[in-house]
Amino acid sequence: xxxDLWAFExxxxxxxxxxxxxxxxxxxxxxxxxxxxxxxxxxxAFDAAGINDSKQLTARQRARLYDHIYAHAQSVGIGxxxxxxxxxINILQASRLSMVxxxxxxxPSPDYLLIDGNVGIAADCAQQPVVQGDSRSVxxxxxxxxxxxxxxxxxxxxxxxxxxxxxxxxKGYPTAAHCAAIAxxxxxxxxxxxxxxxxxxxxxxxxxxxxHGITADAP
Length: 219
What we know:
The chain is built from 8 helices and 5 strands; from the N terminus they run H-E-E-H-E-H-H-E-E-H-H-H-H. By secondary structure, the protein is α/β, with parallel strands linked by helices. A 5-stranded mixed β-sheet has the order 3-2-1-4-5. Helix 2 packs across helix 5 and helix 3 packs across helix 4.
């Protein structure tokens, strides 16, 4: 990439921050499965070759970089919020909650957060939201890769339990094939019942009013 992905981290280290974590999520847009966040702290000497926004990488590239990040990061934290909680508190709140969980799972604790997006999270350290942070900060880009790979692997496990939906292919996103499978088989336990394209196939008495739009980030 042409952008200097270390610019945020370098400036923060110059201010005295030593444990800088990038935070990003995967899975806001799907009709099924959890939302997953990752928080990643990288050492200054980390080899960032190939690190990029996860949506710009192939599955094979993400898998290789996932292993590289886990092997060399100072710390990696994961936060997962399941579909029941997504339906209870809404997808935006669930995304922020998963970020809080990911940061809480970092050891040692960070002293500064770079958070993808334009809203901060409830955390006891300094932080900065960064719009399009996964393409502007190496730490956030690394977090985007870890979150995406973690979630994709979870959805492949769900495919083993519910093979009729094709979760191994679309990972729960609202593809034509996925929507057709919901229409044919009805929702399964990991579908988000508050999402429009799911709740319309629930039995009348249990059908909630759709409360969440679909933000279809790339599969």
